[in-house]
Fold 2-oxoglutarate dehydrogenase complex component E1.
Amino acid sequence: MFNLRTCAAKLRPLTASQTVKTISQQRPAAPRTFHPIRCYSAPVAAEPFLSGTSSNYVEEMYYAWLENPKSVHKSWDIFFRNANAGAAPGTAYQSPPPLSSSLSSLSQAQFLVQAQPNVDKLVEDHLAVQSLIRAYQIRGHHVAQLDPLGILDADLDSSVPADIITSTDKLDLAVFKERLRVLTVGGFYGLDESDLDKVFHLPTTTFIGGNESALPLREIIRRLEMAYCQHIGVEFMFINDLEQCQWIRQKFETPGIMQFTNEEKRTLLARLVRSTRFEEFLHRKWSSEKRFGLEGCEVLIPALKTIIDKSSEKGVDYVIMGMPHRGRLNVLANVIRKELEQIFCQFDSKLEAADEGSGDVKYHLGMYHRRINRVTDRNITLSLVANPSHLEAADPVVQGKTKAEQFYCGDTEGKKVMSILLHGDAAFAGQGIVYETFHLSDLPSYTTHGTVHVVVNNQIGFTTDPRMARSSPYPTDVARVVNAPIFHVNADDPEAVVYVCNVAAEWRSTFHKDVVVDLVCYRRNGHNEMDEPMFTQPLMYKQIRKQKPVLQKYAELLISQGVVNQPEYEEEIAKYDKICEEAHARSKDEKILHIKHWLDSPWPGFFTLDGQPRSMSCPSTGLNEEDLTHIGQVASSVPVEDFTIHGGLSRILKTRGEMVKNRTVDWALAEYMAFGSLLKEGIHIRLSGQDVERGTFSHRHHVLHDQNVDKRTCIPMNHLWPNQAPYTVCNSSLSEYGVLGFELGFAMASPNALVLWEAQFGDFHNTAQCIIDQFICPGQAKWVRQNGIVLLLPHGMEGMGPEHSSARPERFLQMCNDDPDVFPVSGAQPDPLLTPRGALPGPDLPHKAEGWGWPRMGSVRRDVMPSCPHQQRGAAGRALSHAGSTKAQLSPVLCSVCPPVLWEGAAGGWGGSRGCVPGAAGPSGAAVPRHPLTHTC
Ligand SMILES: Cc1ncc(C[n+]2csc(CCOP(=O)(O)OP(=O)(O)O)c2C)c(N)n1
């Protein structure tokens, strides 16, 4: 039930003729409370018993009666009924009937009972207005005018929700009457036309009143329409936090809140000029080149700049962005501010590449730039993360990189570093990785403390109509799982767009949670500039041909408002065109394409000035036994006081301690020693994956849990040395694609960390195949940047079925090979089934595959790896000697007895974490061929 508080004085009659100002003056400003009173026809203040001291009592009585008339004494029931029924001042009170019933008291009771319908109407009307306001808050977005083309409903539903009382355009009386009739007949509200001019107190859950606490119904509806049914559709009522809902209501309902100064309008116009003229310039110069232009959503540039400006104002100084193809060049030029000549020269097909890296640079590679934000006058670093064609694959990578940057600068609350993710409407709705990434957003070891998502919702996916592309009303519905507010906005209303972007950035800095801006726009050309969209969307494109560009519309508006004049506008255009022309002239001087200019993570200190790694050598990896013993002792102890561990774990730790004494190690202890020694050298380690804290096989136990105190844990690895690097070990959500992408992004931020992702079973890595195929394997060749991520893929022949028994390491070898004529086969004779051209699997494929793949890997690994404790023969000695000589070789452990087998895939390398050049040597030595595409270290 609502919080019912008011004062008896408010039980006065209230009519539209009364100034609502008077009422608002009586009302305390904060906290806002709910006042359900509407109209009493008798001034109860005139009652003799209503003295000042009794008013609170009366007030309580009144609300109790409103809820349940039987809950108060009969005399109060009669009084309130009479007052409501219009009894004259002083007559509402009736003394209780005498014990002996008389005819007169009977007739009096009858009079009172007849008052009942008025009371009911009062309560019903009050609830009706409540419900009406709530209906707009929940469903107003369904009737907001979001499509600039005016042909498709953004929610794919043309019907108006049954409980929204009016049409969207105006408070047209005819439409209103009809709707009201339908709703009245349908029994929704029980209001009728005569109620339109009655004044209602507003509940605390709305801000439409501004400084007024009561409004006529007509005005209530008008204001609700202004707030929820114009060019902004706000979806937020699924959020189950009252403060957050109130915050949003205040931002959108407060009358006149969407105001812009002339200066702000001119800045917005100038940004639209840049965005629009940039695409026009590219079109003029390279009319037959693909560029995935932004035409139809030019407002994206002011939108992003607004988010960045507001975030900078709130203290953010590093923004990491991820985006797909659409408008990427424009974002690089006008948001990140990459030099225009660097962009233009990418269109020159004769340009020779100075370094490694594949084609398609301009749509895929990233960028890193530090500059002054002109609006806030503060330094800001902007980084656009490289992305493959695979839509949305970069989402978790951006989040991981953001987390790493936050971690390394000690930004534990995300106040300094933030991420912005851009999406296409079809991809946002269709790609599962979006959902997996959202589910990382609030996990302690994965949160980036709020991401601003911007959807370029051009209402088409390549050639596919949204009605065939998704089953949800909006493409953004996936964001509802994390209670992110979603602001849909008509992209042809630049001020509305800028307004919601400001609110989104403020939301992020206030609540540190995700938020979505859905720019409902259109795509002026085909999917790329060479595509004919009329084949498949004839009607839409007929409308698009007629559509005035947003720049023109906004310029006309500002000129009509006198904010700018025509010559000023033309001058702005000429100024930017000149900038483009001059950059184009300079771009012709570029003879060589430097792909290293397109990097998103600079790795300061790692490269020489000419872009080469400072050192190609691996530092000595040897360790003394004293350190190993120390690590082993910590690994077998509980390094904090008064901490009760499980009895079973005590036995495990005791066994560990004995192994240390006996100079033997098992897999878990060897891992401990490898990690511990790196931590001593100041190398941060992050181990992430499903259940990695304990270890799937209950072997690791890196996090100890106090058996008596909830959430009290201890990570002994962080108690090794006084000045050691931190060790992060975190159980992840049950996702491979999302979490591996995240860790890859984390590893991207620094070459001086060891970042490991563990699959629960090795073969589960295939649900993260996209990250492996698109980012890890093509590493240097595609991205000009290697990555030290290490994949732990435990697998073994232990009766868990054919797929669980192998992590398919041979696939990594295959993916690291880019010679079309050679496969990494082991036998003397090339296997015809496995040659790349014309190779079709025959009936004997399993046998053949086994012939070259697994046994070969197995035998190679058996050669280089230490034995396990089950094969008592010198196992510990070998493991220790490995740990003592080269930690990079410690990891491959194979045992036919132990269930888990750890394999460091071709994808990963520890050398990166040791400062050597990834790719210089593989962890499994000869198992990984040396090849430019090989991404091992
Ligand atoms: C994972 C993946 N599947 C398919 C494609 C091929 N593809 C490229 S763009 C595109 C349509 C994308 O539509 P949308 O997300 O709405 O973005 P828009 O191009 O309209 O901006 C498709 C299917 C791809 N790049 N990635």
Q: What stands out?
A: The two ends are 64 Å apart (CA to CA).
